[in-house]
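Review form for a predicted model. The reviewer records the input and the model, then writes brief findings.
Reviewer: anonymous (R2)
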Amino acid sequence: MRPYVILNAAMTLDGKIATHTGSSNISGKEDLKRVHEIRKECDGIMVGIGTVSADDPRLTVHKIDAKQEDNPVRIVVDSRCRTPPDARVTNTDAKTIIAGANEYKEEYMQTKDYETLKNRGVRFFFSGGKRVDLKALMNYLHEEGIEKVMLEGGATLNFSMIKAGLIDEISICIAPMVVGGVNSKTFFDGEGFDIMDEAVKLELTDCYTLGKDLILNYRVLND
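Model under review:
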């Protein structure tokens, strides 16, 4: 058993989620409220360490009326355990789980950062070898009572999750802009698939405009 996973993101018409400098203010205020409504409905919200490093997100519900108990559990996929103790995702506004890889576990557990975060109430889950075993992580989250997870990237984690068949739904905001740039960040990256026949198939379930943006909702057709 594993949680139901919704991947949410905003991208430009040419599929970029950030410029090469890391600028990512893409969607309008209406979409930001929509995103926080989804957060409020979820038990967990998951990002990769790249997103933490680039954006220092809070990953809480704060664009709409909400109480502290409405905040989902924050999950950081961080194989090499590089989450800094001053990252906002580790504050006491909500519970936090850091998922690391077994290869780095013993060394990391001897560090001051580990002690600092552990004393703050951050929980840790280790799996896999050099990289987090995402299926094991999903099983662990389900055992912890997390039944619905909002995945907010970044692009490498997005691809790893969808390749592993761990995403059930994709909700994407497309903003009416083009940014270009070969080094701009895309919705999915990772190693990619070799041929189109290997691509993950989707079914469009909803489509509507929201302010200046276009919202597309898809069901992932996992085998």
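Findings: The chain has six helices and eleven strands.
Further findings: The mean pLDDT is 95.
Recommendation: see findings above.
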